[in-house]
Amino acid sequence: MVLIACPAFQERWNKHRESWRNEEPGIYNDLGEFAHFIVDQAYPSGDLASVNASFALMEKFLEEGDQEVRDAAGIGFVEDVQNISSWRPFGQAPFIELLGPLSRQAWAEVEEGWRGRNSLADVVRAERKAREES
Q1: What distance in Å separates the CA atoms of residue 22 and residue 34, rounded to the nearest whole number?
Q2: What does the pLDDT read at residue 133?
Q3: Which pLDDT does position 48 carry in this prediction?
């Protein structure tokens, strides 16, 4: 579905798959590569069709997907776009404007999960603690 929505991703997708050789990279690695394509290649080159299509597709995944697909769209794409763009000169603003209602909610949840934390280890510890307390 990603390649149908964003055919410009095809070349990068092929290289990504080749780098994994015969191993299955998994949905999070696949969507992480797609997030890098959107932030590092499509947006800077002015390929707004791919950028817009990517966010529309993630909104569809969040709306219609099963739990695994929703988690992957929220964490494997939305969180990656958030993190990757935070280090780019253009920042997160161009992507925030493209968020639909569900991806906006996912974006906010990611921000909340990172609030007051400096590393992924801090986030994981906080999530474990929250699960233990519930």
Answers
A1: 20
A2: 84
A3: 96
Q: Which two tokens stand for residue 26?
A: 């998994």
Q: 28-41 pLDDT, tens per residue?
A: 999 999 999 999 99
- The secondary structure of the chain in percent helix, strand, coil, rounded to multiples of 5, reads 80, 0, 20
DSSP for residue 8:
G
Give me the domain span that covers residue 70: 2-133
Locus of tokens 């929703």: 70
d(CA 65, CA 27): 13
**60 vs 53: CA distance, rounded Å:** 10
Distance CA 96, CA 44 (A): 16
Task: Give the count of domains, the chain.
Answer: 1
